[in-house]
Amino acid sequence: MDTQLRTFMEGEGDRYFERNRSLYGEADPATDPPLRLIESYDLQPKTVLEVGCSNGYRLAAVARIHGARVTGVEPSLAAIADGREQFPEVRFERGSGDAIPLDERFDLVIVNFVFHWVDRSLLLRTVAEIDRVVEDGGFLILGDYLPAHPTRRPYHHLPDRDLYTYKQDYAEMFAASKCYQRIAVLAGRHSQPPILSAVVDDDDRRGTTLLRKRSQELYVEPAT
Questions:
Q1: In whole angstroms, how large is the CA radius of gyration of the chain?
Q2: Of 35, 80, 16, whose CA–CA distance to 53 is shortest?
Q3: CA distance 15 to 93
Q4: Nearest to 141 by CA among 105, 99, 172, 185
Q5: What is the spatial distance between Cα 99 and Cα 122, in angstroms, rounded to a whole number?
Q6: pLDDT by residue (tens digit) across 80-112?
Q7: Could you give the C-alpha distances from 205 to 170, 183, 189, in angstroms and in order?
Q8: What is the DSSP letter of 121?
């Protein structure tokens, strides 16, 4: 297991959840970017997976609003325990994005502020795993930092460890495959709640992108 992933699986994931526990109450579709995209584009998901779901607060909102069957994958045992108590409608699996412990596919997959934690040795494997669980014709909502240029920063909570966060346009990786079509992006400040704005300092810019998987439809056959 990669050192960065092991650190989160073996305790830092739990500590991160405890530091931010107060943020993971009932999700508000008016302020939560993934929920705003679902509502704005009238998605009607029936099966939803969130990778890095914390305690499942966002999935619980999707289940309540849309009656969807919702599943969360999360490395933090503390977050899963809290979620099972608060949101029994959410099915939880412990795991990480590079090895999703599920064989099924979903018509909507949400990956919100997860990729910047992923060590570069696992980046392409994580992209492949996310792609594996999105059904063809389904949707992917991907939120993360959106700087003008890719950046790497030391993880300030563990300054004595060789750990980093990596900020870049992760939706670009899926769109570049030509198997995904960008539908929309919400951009703004990374704050609580997130603020939509056209003018944002580079370090604080976030983007939440809605993509649709169309593994064959985006290819054009040459005229004969």
A1: 17
A2: 80
A3: 19
A4: 185
A5: 10
A6: 999 999 999 999 999 999 999 999 999 999 999
A7: 13, 19, 5
A8: G
The total number of residues shown for the chain amounts to 224
3-state SS class at 4: helix
Residue 213 · residue 136 · CB < 8 Å:
yes
- Token pair, residue 74, equals 């999360």
The pLDDT value recorded for residue 148 is 85
Q: Provide the H-helix boundaries in the chain.
A: 3-7, 13-20, 33-40, 57-66, 77-86, 123-133, 171-176
Angle at 8 between CA 5 and CA 11, to 5 degrees: 145
Q: Supply 172's token pair.
A: 């670009």
- The string over 86-116, giving b where at least 16 C-beta atoms fall within 10 Å of a residue's C-beta and e elsewhere, is ebeebbbeebbbbebebeeebbbbbbbbbbb
Residues 6+ apart with CB under 8 A from 128: none
